[in-house]
Amino acid sequence: MASSNFSTSLCFFLAFVPLLQVCLCSRRLSAAVEKQPLTITYHNGALLSGPISVNLIWYGKFTASQRAVLSDFVASLAAEGELEQRRPSVSSWWAMAEKYYSRSKAPPPKLTVGEQIFDEDCSLGKSLKNADISALAARGPHRRAINVVLTQHDVAVEGFCMSRCATHGSSPRSKAGRFAYIWVGNSAVQCPGQCAWPFHQPLYGPQVPPLLPPAGDVGVDGMVMNLASMIAGAVTNPFGGGFFMGPETAPLEAATACPGVYGKGAYPGYAGDLLVDPSTGASYNANGAHGRRYLLPGIFDPLTASCSTV
């Protein structure tokens, strides 16, 4: 299935910057990045608006606890009431991404957890090409949807660990509708130092001790970070003409413009000042649904040309 595709790039600024997600959106691994003007602008393309279901397509055998961590994150994006009072929260992080819509005529979307589709037996095999990701994404709804393909640690995906940790793209226009999609891989076995930093020792740069992950699962906590970046990109630049800076073929988006930034004072090799769970010692920066805690990336603020964190 033809598609536009934005990938999460693993880039290294200075000595080390973990996983720069370069969109039409994927997180690509590259040795150097050309300097781009620090301005994210709107390119007058279509944006996602109104009610949007986030549908989760599980490829491989995820445990119930792993599925709960990721689905609770999606549910947290729109959570209100008690969660909203427990700042910093996932919903307050999401509000930073929604600010982009003030620069367009469209209202921000209302995200909800949609369908959950399971393929535990890996019907397309355990070595996937980009076309396979598009085909899996097409199993979800084709209208008012973001279809998220999540691959388990024993599934290889084209470019995974070599040039990206996650990707977002879109389906072609058709009578059935047009949808955005995301792919995120579990890097626990294949490349945790690239796609799950700071919860694993990095391959390059300062070799500081890794932080403890809030869910106790290096691979899944890394997936949350990458999924957060891709959702921010898929909403603000779903079809290639939304908000980004740099070349259209390798744009920097709302979250991918802030690689390695998770708290104030972040610099290469240091994620920034974070909260620490006194009972587990795990590091996090946002509270989520059902008592969850997550580490979420910084969001680029086009008004200040700087990265903001919760």
From TrEMBL:
<keyword id="KW-0964">Secreted</keyword>
<protein>
    <recommendedName>
        <fullName>Protein EXORDIUM-like</fullName>
    </recommendedName>
</protein>
<keyword id="KW-0732">Signal</keyword>
<keyword id="KW-0052">Apoplast</keyword>
<dbReference type="Pfam" id="PF04674">
    <property type="entry name" value="Phi_1"/>
</dbReference>
<dbReference type="InterPro" id="IPR006766">
    <property type="entry name" value="EXORDIUM-like"/>
</dbReference>
<feature type="signal peptide">
    <location>
        <begin position="1"/>
        <end position="25"/>
    </location>
</feature>
<comment type="similarity">
    <text>Belongs to the EXORDIUM family.</text>
</comment>
